[in-house]
Amino acid sequence: ICGPCCDGTYYPKQSLEILNDIGKADISEISSLMMSANRSRRFGDGAWVSILEKDQLKPIFTRLRELVSV
């Protein structure tokens, strides 16, 4: 079973760009954002605190809801 890290749908360098234009994000970009957020905790203490304080998950989940309700 292959996940976003090995199937070519993980775009860590484009995460900020995707987040800034979240209204156009497709399901693979949403997956990439979630993977990037999850992996960020490995590389910096307090990464999740920062993500939560900046309320970065709300627009991701809002867009995901839009995509799956179509």
Tell me the number of helical segments per DSSP (H or I, 4 or more residues long): 4
- Average pLDDT value? 83
Task: State the share of residues found in helices, binned by percent.
Answer: 55-70%
How many DSSP E strands?
Answer: 0
Globally, the shape reads globular
Distance between the termini: 27 Å
| Main beta-sheet strand count, sense and barrel state | none
Structural class based on helices, strands and sheet pairing? mainly alpha
As a percent range, the share of strand residues is under 5%
* Poorly predicted runs of 5 or more residues: none
Rg over C-alpha atoms, rounded to the nearest angstrom: 12 Å
SSE sequence, one letter per element: HHHH
